[in-house]
Amino acid sequence: MSGLERWHVGPWTTRGSLPGEPLEPGRKRTPDELNFDVVGLARILGRRLSGREELQVRLWQNELRPTHTRLCGVHTLADPENSRKLEETARETFAWLSTRAPAGYEFILTDAVHLQPLTDLSAEVVTVDAVIAIAAERGDALPADRLAASHVRRNSAGDWFAGDAVCNWSGPYPTSDEAADAVRAARVELTNQLSQAGHEDLAATANSWPDVQVEPPPTRP
Questions:
Q1: Residue 28 gets which letter from DSSP?
Q2: Could you give the count of Cα atoms lying within 13 Å of 81 in the half-sphere of its Cβ?
Q3: Kind plus residue range of the DSSP H or E element containing 31
């Protein structure tokens, strides 16, 4: 699925108020708005809808998002039964989404849809993000961690960078291979730093880390 080529750890939807919590207009979605965001996220990531389902989504959209400039956190569906149907659809949608997490990660649904690393060190795939999270829980933040956990992407000018969903930590590079090599070098350094900090069990997972993710360049029509 092309939509998952640019994955990132953390929330994938705007945060929302949970049922029973006071609403926070302008800061958090209402429960209905959050459920609609879950449905919308899956559509972006490739979930196909029937004609009837597409019509229903449009009806929900008209009620929950009447304008592009509307204040979030205030809109709810007028019909409680319609709200229940949206909640049920969001649960079904999240079940579809949860099976499509990248190897070594899982989607969870709380106040938003979050992607988080699995922290089972005996797993076949152990991600760099998981190792960094465990080290942080033990009280260590290591200098090489951000670049070691980076993926490679291309900007509109054609240059390649190593970074995350928000920041570029290294680059620009003329080729994706050079950017990926910078991440691999950071991973070697991270392994050394883990060992020096006494985290031999974390350093030993290096052979289980997935290869550096390189986002394919945009296709031209």
A1: S
A2: 0
A3: helix 31-44
